[in-house]
Amino acid sequence: MKENLLKKDKFTYPSIGKKSTATFLDLTLLFFVIYTLSVNTGFIDNQSFGIKLLVFYLFVLVYEPILITYSSTLGQLLTNTRTRQSENPENKIKLHQAFIRTSLKYTTGIISLLGSGKQDYYDKVAKTVIIDSKGVEKDSFTGKIISFINNKWTKFGFAVFIYLLMVLWVGNLILLLGLPILFDIYISKKVRWAFWKPRDVKNKKKSFLVEWIDAIIFAVVAATLIRMFFIEAYTIPTGSMEKDLLIGDYLFVSKVSYGPKLPNTPLSFPFVHHTMPLSKSAKSYVEWVYWPYKRLAGFTEIKNNDRVVFNFPAGDTVIVKFQSEKTYYNYLREVAQNMAVSAKDTAWEKYVPKARENVLKTEEIIVRPVDKRENYIKRCVGIAGDKLEIINSVLLINDKPVDGLDKVQFMYFVITKNILGNSFREKYNITKTEFSNSGDFVPGMRNLEISNEDINKLETLKQGRLYLLPLTPKMADEISKEPFIQGVFRYQKAWDIEVFPNNKNYKWTQDNFGPIVIPKKGSTIKIDLDNLPLYERIIDLYEENDLAVKNGKIFINGKETDSYTFKMDYYWLMGDNRHNSQDSRYWGFVPEDHIVGKAVFIWLSMDPDESFPKSIRWERMFKLVHEN
Which of 137, 220, 456, 467 could cross-link 438 (Cys pair, CB 3.0–4.6 Å)? Predict the structure, then answer.
């Protein structure tokens, strides 16, 4: 049959790259339709994983057979491929053939890896074949459409249209210099852009190797553009967002929600964030090409309660041996404090310059641009212009308590009559790592960080076991009613220098913080030596001014001043696991140029405490990340 097809010169077998492209386009459309349906109705999102999978499968079984029976799927139409009867490719396949083929395709494998010139086995069962059209039904309406689409000027015009839309979106007219390249690719063809292909490939069948190179290059370019401008995958690495987002959740982060920002370092190794594989310090990017901050138009603004992925503000300077485990600034304060202790001095701040000098001499330091800093995810609890305050663990925004405190976790001391077992851990959904934080309790203990009124309650307790567990207030109340529980007390951490603004004049804690107003672009504030610690990082680093204090006076860019106007919007981001989260309470405001995107969709979730396949959290798969 293959020989007959080639002799007729009407059909050829498409490359793996073409079939992959068609399937990719079809799945993208399906995902978009089902995602839109879920957002607007909530039906799919509220169902079990089995129901979600069934809905997707049934949608495919209706969508694809009808389209390929009539003409082709969207992906096939754009790649100029068709599904036809294997015995006579002139004829369209029948509905039952399309149904069989689609059923097998989406249950046994999406893309064939059998190689050039081979048919997928599900095509053999359904007696169908995927072909590359060359003049099929030339005089028919479909044939005329195919002929029009294949015209080089049509392709060039479409490419120019898409390219001009991209230029307008990016807002950089210098990109218009790419139009001559498009003209050469589609019309003049003077330059051999696909250098890996033989020069006479036009009249020859592409080799298996060339097909795979085509597919790989397409995949890399497409994935890079999608990752840069539209959507990016992210994995939850820590428990800072428990019980909302769990360790092992795999997310899709939408960059078009707030508008994608152009990369500061556009030339970098594909699919690698900041460090080359098998290295701790080799940069995956070059810095001699640097683009200033620019954000493209998005669909919405950042709102309170959005789950936001952002570049870690304190990750601008990294000590290689610590990586993200300890920030450069925390280590600097730690070294300065040790120097003060050695000198029997309590004023450790004056040792910071010397500590910085020692750290720079003894440690390998990396300075990273904004887009190459670690990605974090937190809940946006405050937007630009909001007043924020925390009083006894209660978060106030614009003087009003924030809803959802029952979903937020705090650390609690749980004192039991005996050792707790796995059944208790599983009942309250506590991870093994968190559950291991325990020790013996004896009456009269005074080294627990709890409120003074709760300390007196310890006198009534008997010897037992002490656990430090992350619980919601509702869970703590339920646990306190268990017959084997002696007492449940909320952890209250004292002030330490790690809490923003890292100044002894602001003795704020995790549970009692502020009040503070989040800076808004264009707003002007009065600054003095008292409030400067709140804004010095913004003025000096984020907005790139030369800030200095001389003889008790503040100078910005060499001029004495007592006010400052902000150039960007800022946000306040916190984890739902309030006592186990490194967030804005420790490093302050998050600038708008650090915002990466909005978490929208959980496509996979794996429990790190379980072995495969028990580790799969089926109930969380294909779940939307809601705004409340």
Answer: 467
* pTM exceeds cut of 0.85: no
Contact residues for 571 (Cβ-Cβ < 8 A; gap 6+): 302, 308, 380, 382, 383, 384, 518, 589, 590, 592, 595
- From 68, 69, 72, select the one nearest 94 (Cα to Cα): 69
At residue 142's C-alpha, the angle toward residues 136 and 148, to 5°, is: 90
Task: For the chain, give percent helix, strand, coil, nearest 5.
Answer: 40, 20, 40
Distance CA 590, CA 570 (A): 5
The neighbour count for residue 438, using CB atoms within 10 Å, is: 16
Q: In this predicted model, what pLDDT tens digit does every residue of 528-584 receive, in sequence order? A: 999 999 999 999 999 999 999 998 899 999 999 999 999 999 999 999 999 889 999
What does each C-alpha distance from 487 to 312, 413, 490 come to in angstroms?
Answer: 38, 8, 10
Give 382-438 pLDDT, tens digit per residue.
Answer: 999 999 999 988 999 999 998 776 778 998 988 888 888 888 888 888 888 788 778
CA distance 97 to 125: 9
Mean pLDDT check: name the lowest of 102-106, 107-111, 446-450.
107-111
Hey, which bits of 128-256 come out as E strands? 128-133, 231-235, 249-254
Task: Estimate the crossing angle of helix 352-362 against helix 328-342, to 10 degrees.
Answer: 120
Distance, CA of 131 to CA of 555 (rounded, Å):
71
Exposed (0-12), middle (13-18) or buried (19+): which is 585, by Cβ within 10 Å? Answer: buried
Q: In this structure, are strands 485-490 and 410-416 parallel, antiparallel, or unpaired?
A: antiparallel
Q: How would you class 241 by CB atoms within 10 Å of its CB: exposed for 0-12, middle for 13-18, buried for 19 or more?
A: buried
